[in-house]
Write a structure and sequence with these properties.
- The chain is mainly beta.
- 12% of the residues lie in helices and 37% in strands.
- It has 1 helix and 9 strands, in the order H-E-E-E-E-E-E-E-E-E.
- Strands 2, 4, 5, 6, 8 and 9 form a 6-stranded mixed beta sheet that branches. It has a 3-stranded antiparallel beta sheet with strand order 1-3-7, with no helix packed on it.
Protein backbone atom coordinates (compact mmCIF):
# COMPACT_ATOMS: atom_id res chain seq x y z
CA UNK A 1 0.00 0.00 0.00
CA UNK A 2 2.85 2.32 0.86
CA UNK A 3 4.36 1.66 -2.48
CA UNK A 4 1.11 2.52 -4.25
CA UNK A 5 0.77 5.84 -2.36
CA UNK A 6 4.39 6.66 -3.06
CA UNK A 7 3.91 5.93 -6.77
CA UNK A 8 0.80 8.11 -6.91
CA UNK A 9 2.59 10.95 -5.07
CA UNK A 10 5.55 10.79 -7.43
CA UNK A 11 3.20 10.74 -10.40
CA UNK A 12 1.37 13.86 -9.13
CA UNK A 13 4.65 15.66 -8.43
CA UNK A 14 6.01 14.78 -11.86
CA UNK A 15 2.79 15.94 -13.51
CA UNK A 16 2.88 19.26 -11.69
CA UNK A 17 6.52 19.86 -12.61
CA UNK A 18 5.85 19.13 -16.29
CA UNK A 19 2.97 21.60 -16.43
CA UNK A 20 0.32 19.03 -17.31
CA UNK A 21 -3.01 19.08 -15.62
CA UNK A 22 -4.50 16.09 -13.91
CA UNK A 23 -7.83 17.74 -13.34
CA UNK A 24 -7.22 17.59 -9.63
CA UNK A 25 -7.92 21.27 -9.17
CA UNK A 26 -11.11 22.74 -10.51
CA UNK A 27 -14.86 22.54 -10.26
CA UNK A 28 -15.02 18.72 -10.10
CA UNK A 29 -12.40 18.47 -7.36
CA UNK A 30 -14.12 20.85 -4.99
CA UNK A 31 -11.04 23.05 -4.89
CA UNK A 32 -11.35 26.62 -6.16
CA UNK A 33 -9.55 27.51 -9.34
CA UNK A 34 -7.79 30.81 -8.83
CA UNK A 35 -9.34 33.64 -10.83
CA UNK A 36 -7.00 35.71 -12.98
CA UNK A 37 -6.09 38.98 -11.37
CA UNK A 38 -8.31 41.78 -12.57
CA UNK A 39 -6.30 44.65 -13.95
CA UNK A 40 -7.94 47.99 -14.23
CA UNK A 41 -6.65 50.27 -16.92
CA UNK A 42 -6.15 53.79 -15.71
CA UNK A 43 -7.96 56.33 -17.81
CA UNK A 44 -5.83 59.40 -18.21
CA UNK A 45 -7.65 62.47 -19.41
CA UNK A 46 -5.47 64.76 -21.50
CA UNK A 47 -4.99 67.97 -19.63
CA UNK A 48 -5.45 71.30 -21.32
CA UNK A 49 -2.23 73.06 -22.03
CA UNK A 50 -1.46 75.83 -19.61
CA UNK A 51 -2.42 79.36 -20.59
CA UNK A 52 0.25 81.50 -22.15
CA UNK A 53 0.88 84.46 -19.82
CA UNK A 54 0.39 87.94 -21.25
CA UNK A 55 0.97 91.11 -19.24
CA UNK A 56 0.21 94.63 -20.44
CA UNK A 57 3.37 96.64 -19.76
CA UNK A 58 2.35 99.92 -21.41
CA UNK A 59 -1.25 101.11 -21.55
CA UNK A 60 -2.47 103.43 -24.27
CA UNK A 61 -4.14 105.53 -21.53
CA UNK A 62 -5.96 108.60 -22.83
CA UNK A 63 -5.37 109.55 -26.46
CA UNK A 64 -6.59 112.57 -28.43
CA UNK A 65 -8.25 112.04 -31.79
CA UNK A 66 -5.60 112.20 -34.51
CA UNK A 67 -2.81 111.29 -32.03
CA UNK A 68 -0.72 108.13 -31.69
CA UNK A 69 -1.60 105.37 -29.24
CA UNK A 70 0.84 102.75 -28.01
CA UNK A 71 0.24 99.45 -26.26
CA UNK A 72 2.97 97.00 -25.18
CA UNK A 73 2.80 93.52 -23.68
CA UNK A 74 5.13 90.92 -22.21
CA UNK A 75 4.67 87.25 -23.10
CA UNK A 76 6.78 84.25 -24.13
CA UNK A 77 9.75 84.55 -26.48
CA UNK A 78 8.67 84.05 -30.13
CA UNK A 79 4.92 83.94 -29.35
CA UNK A 80 2.73 85.12 -32.22
CA UNK A 81 0.42 87.95 -31.14
CA UNK A 82 -2.59 89.77 -32.55
CA UNK A 83 -4.28 92.97 -31.40
CA UNK A 84 -7.87 94.01 -32.01
CA UNK A 85 -8.86 97.62 -31.26
CA UNK A 86 -12.66 97.60 -31.24
CA UNK A 87 -14.07 101.03 -32.09
CA UNK A 88 -17.85 101.68 -32.20
CA UNK A 89 -17.64 101.43 -35.99
CA UNK A 90 -15.87 98.04 -35.88
CA UNK A 91 -12.34 96.66 -35.54
CA UNK A 92 -9.61 99.14 -36.42
CA UNK A 93 -7.65 98.66 -39.62
CA UNK A 94 -5.11 101.32 -38.66
CA UNK A 95 -1.57 100.94 -39.88
CA UNK A 96 0.56 99.57 -37.04
CA UNK A 97 -1.96 96.99 -35.78
CA UNK A 98 -0.51 94.05 -37.72
CA UNK A 99 0.15 90.65 -36.14
CA UNK A 100 3.59 90.49 -34.53
CA UNK A 101 6.03 87.99 -33.04
CA UNK A 102 7.43 88.57 -29.56
CA UNK A 103 11.15 89.38 -29.50
CA UNK A 104 13.75 87.36 -27.58
CA UNK A 105 12.65 88.98 -24.31
CA UNK A 106 8.94 88.35 -25.02
CA UNK A 107 8.08 91.98 -25.76
CA UNK A 108 5.54 93.10 -28.36
CA UNK A 109 4.47 96.72 -28.96
CA UNK A 110 1.94 98.29 -31.30
CA UNK A 111 1.68 101.96 -32.25
CA UNK A 112 -1.19 103.34 -34.32
CA UNK A 113 -2.96 106.62 -35.00
CA UNK A 114 -6.45 107.16 -33.62
CA UNK A 115 -8.67 108.53 -36.40
CA UNK A 116 -9.75 112.19 -36.26
CA UNK A 117 -13.43 111.20 -36.46
CA UNK A 118 -13.27 108.47 -33.79
CA UNK A 119 -16.02 108.74 -31.16
CA UNK A 120 -14.87 109.88 -27.74
CA UNK A 121 -14.97 107.39 -24.90
CA UNK A 122 -13.60 104.04 -23.84
CA UNK A 123 -12.28 101.72 -26.55
CA UNK A 124 -11.81 98.00 -25.78
CA UNK A 125 -8.61 96.27 -26.88
CA UNK A 126 -8.01 92.52 -27.03
CA UNK A 127 -4.55 90.98 -27.39
CA UNK A 128 -4.18 87.26 -28.05
CA UNK A 129 -0.93 85.30 -28.33
CA UNK A 130 -0.05 81.70 -29.05
CA UNK A 131 3.04 79.54 -28.97
CA UNK A 132 2.80 75.85 -29.82
CA UNK A 133 -0.24 74.45 -28.04
CA UNK A 134 -0.41 77.32 -25.54
CA UNK A 135 -2.49 80.43 -25.95
CA UNK A 136 -3.60 83.37 -23.89
CA UNK A 137 -5.64 86.56 -24.06
CA UNK A 138 -5.65 89.86 -22.25
CA UNK A 139 -8.28 92.57 -22.42
CA UNK A 140 -7.62 96.23 -21.76
CA UNK A 141 -8.92 99.57 -23.03
CA UNK A 142 -7.96 103.17 -23.65
CA UNK A 143 -9.91 106.40 -23.72
CA UNK A 144 -10.31 108.67 -26.75
CA UNK A 145 -10.68 112.34 -25.72
Amino acid sequence: MRRALLAVALFVIAACDSGSSLGLVGPSSGLATPEPLATEEATVEPSAPPDLPITVTRQAGTVARGAAATLAIQTANKAGCRIVVQYDSGPSTAKGLADKTADSSGTVAWKWTVGRNTHRGEVPVLVSCSLGDQSGNVETSFTVK
